[in-house]
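ARCHIVE CARD
CATEGORY: sequence design from structure
SOURCE FIELD: tokenized fold
FIELD CONTENT:
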């Protein structure tokens, strides 16, 4: 199955998903975001939804709808188009800090945290988020790029700081 991709303006997000549903992409699979704040030309987040057309047995069609949302700007909720998007919109709000305008999951509570413990500060899926565990103790498992280069085994490898690793002066060691 090859997915079709449609890139739309942030202001067309809801209407693009409504049009896709009306075209037969009635199965809502998932919705999330990708941090693209480092993109010099158009910094922001790619809010992405994956839909499926399941009408024809054996001929599953997928559609990826993508909208670039500037940091600090809201995206329109699609809970009125796909009720199942509520969980995903709450997760995207909590993990990336992207506000969802018009969110309504039927509870009357509005957009709110979903997964993180009460009192948690920050947006852990942003590339700028500092992982405290990376500052307080060595990370278990495989080394990230830029870590574990105390030996001279790979002198030609560029030493970079992995995303989420705070600078040496950050936090307790």
């Amino acid at each position: 199955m090859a997915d079709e991709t449609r890139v739309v303006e942030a202001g067309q997000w809801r209407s693009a998903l409504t049009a896709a549903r009306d075209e037969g992409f009635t199965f809502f699979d998932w919705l999330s975001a990708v941090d693209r704040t480092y993109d010099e030309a158009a910094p922001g987040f790619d809010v992405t939804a994956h839909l499926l057309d399941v009408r024809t047995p054996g001929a599953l069609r997928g559609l990826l709808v993508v909208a670039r949302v500037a940091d600090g700007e809201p995206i329109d909720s699609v809970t009125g188009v796909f009720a199942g998007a509520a969980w995903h919109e709450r997760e995207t709000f909590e993990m990336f800090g992207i506000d969802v305008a018009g969110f309504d999951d039927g509870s009357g509570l509005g957009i709110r945290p979903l997964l993180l413990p009460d009192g948690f500060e920050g947006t852990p899926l942003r590339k700028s988020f500092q992982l405290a565990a990376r500052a307080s103790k060595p990370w278990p498992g495989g080394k990230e790029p830029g870590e574990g280069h105390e030996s001279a085994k790979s002198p030609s490898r560029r030493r970079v700081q992995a995303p989420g690793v705070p600078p040496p002066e950050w936090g307790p060691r």
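CARD ANNOTATION: Strands lie at 3-9, 27-35, 45-53, 61-69, 75-76, 100-101. The helical segments are 13-22, 85-96, 132-136.
SHELF: design records, drawer C
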